[in-house]
Amino acid sequence: MSCQCGSACKDERFVKIDQILDQNGRDESMLIQNLEQIQHFLGFLPEDVQAYLAEAMGIPLSKIYGVVTFYSLFTTEPIGKYKISICLGTACYVKGAGEIVAEFEKQLKIKVGQTTPDGRFTLAGCRCLGACGLAPVLNVNGKVFGRLTTDDVAGILAQFE
Amino acid sequence: MEFYRTHVLVCAGTGCTSMDSRLLRQNLYEEIIKRGLEKEVKVIETGCFGFCNLGPIMVVYPEGTFYCQVKPQDAAQIVEEHFIKGRPVERLLYQHEKETTDVVEMENIEFFKHQKRVALHNCGLIDPENIEEYIAQDGYFALAHCLKDLTPLEVIDIIKKSGLRGRGGGGFPTGTKWEFAYKSKDDQKYVVCNADEGDPGAFMDRSILEGDPHGILEAMAIAGYAIGANQGYIYVRAEYPIAVERLKHAIKQAREYGLLGDHIFGTDFCFNIDIRLGAGAFVCGEETALLASTEGRRGEPRPRPPFPAVKGLFDKPTIINNVETFANVTKIIRNGWEWFASMGTEKSKGTKVFALAGKINNIGLIEIPMGTTLRTIIYDIGGGIPKGKKFKAAQTGGPSGGCLTEAHLDIPIDYDNLTAAGSMMGSGGLIVMDEDNCMVDIARFFLEFTQEESCGKCPPCRIGTKRMLEILDKITTGKGTPEDLDNLETLATTIKSASLCALGQTAPNPVLSTIKHFRKEYEAHIYDKKCPARVCQALLSYKIDPQKCKGCGLCARYCPAEAITGKIKEPFTIDVEKCIKCGDCITRCKFGAISKE
Amino acid sequence: MKSIEELRAIKAKKIGDVVSRSEKGVPTINVHMGTCGIASGAREALTAILEEIETRQIKDIHVVQSGCPGMCVNEPLVTVTMPGETPYIYLKVTPDRARSIVVRHVINHQPISEWLLNRQD
Question: What is the pTM of this model?
Answer without folding.
Answer: 0.83
